[in-house]
Write a structure and sequence with these properties.
Number of domains: 3
Helix content: 55-70%
Order of helices and strands: EEHHHHEEHHHHHHH
CATH class of the largest domain: Mainly Alpha
Strand content: 5-15%
CATH topology of the largest domain: Arc Repressor Mutant, subunit A
Length: about 250
């Protein structure tokens, strides 16, 4: 659910691009996220149809659930066994265990928070978590009311982890790793100015002045185009530092 939405069973996978209906994926994701409880018919109708007017939402939901179950045929699994029904409520059958990337990421975040006294252990956990975070939680549903707080929770934890990791790597002057982390994180958080600042510092530390200058130009254009402002004064100061270094190199 991080960066996309897909289900893998054995050597077969279905993803959000395999099925035409966005509703199928939303209701399926909802049932998996809240798989420890029975979800009432009215709750599911509110999740999937709250923005639409339907003369018979209960019947529409029944049809949709049939399609959800049928989607598992591609995986060679009987959907009726996966999604069970009781007294009008639906539930993911927990006899079928689920390994969810978002939950694995959350466990890594918790582990990292108890390992600050051991930098090597923290960095090892952080690498695993960063690799697992391929994007925001259910990005195609990021404006849905039930997704918004979960999306915000994971994004905040990811950014916090990124900054802590960069701080530790900076103390050890591990600039190549900082560059790799910043470039990955910027794809998910393109307006986090601190990431650009850390990226440019690492480039300068490696004496990659031209690359740092190019990054400054890209960053300046991005923030001016999106917000009509220029980047942080600290980023401008780095640019001036690069310009002075280049000038001195040319004179010498």
């Amino acid at each position: 659910m991080l960066g996309s939405c897909s289900i893998t069973y054995g050597d077969k996978t279905i993803d959000i691009y395999n099925l035409l209906s966005k509703k199928i994926w939303e209701i399926l994701a909802y049932l998996i996220v809240y798989r420890d409880k029975y979800v009432s018919q009215s709750e599911l109708i509110d999740v999937v149809y709250r923005k639409e007017k339907s003369n018979n939402p209960a019947n529409a939901l029944k049809t949709l659930m049939h399609r959800v179950r049928a989607a598992f045929e591609v995986l060679g699994v009987d959907g009726k066994n996966l999604i069970i029904q009781q007294n009008g409520s639906y539930k993911w059958n927990n006899k079928y265990k689920v390994l969810l990337d978002a939950e694995s990421f959350d466990k890594l975040i918790s582990a990292s928070q108890t390992s600050h006294d051991d930098n090597n252990r923290f960095l090892s956990i952080a690498r695993d978590a960063i690799a697992l975070y391929r994007g925001g939680f259910l990005p195609r549903f990021s404006t849905e009311s039930w997704v918004v707080p979960i999306h915000a929770y994971f994004h905040a934890n990811y950014i916090r982890l990124i900054h802590t990791t960069i701080e530790l790597l900076s103390k050890e002057n591990r600039n190549v790793e900082i560059i790799e982390i910043c470039q990955k994180a910027i794809k998910t958080a393109p307006y986090d100015e601190q990431l650009y600042l850390c990226l440019m510092r690492a480039l300068i530390n490696l004496e990659l002045y031209q690359t740092a200058m190019e990054q400054y130009e890209k960053t300046t254009k991005l923030f001016y185009r999106e917000f009509g402002v220029t980047p942080l004064d600290e980023i401008k100061a780095l640019y001036n530092q690069i310009a002075c270094t280049n000038q001195q190199s040319t004179i010498s």
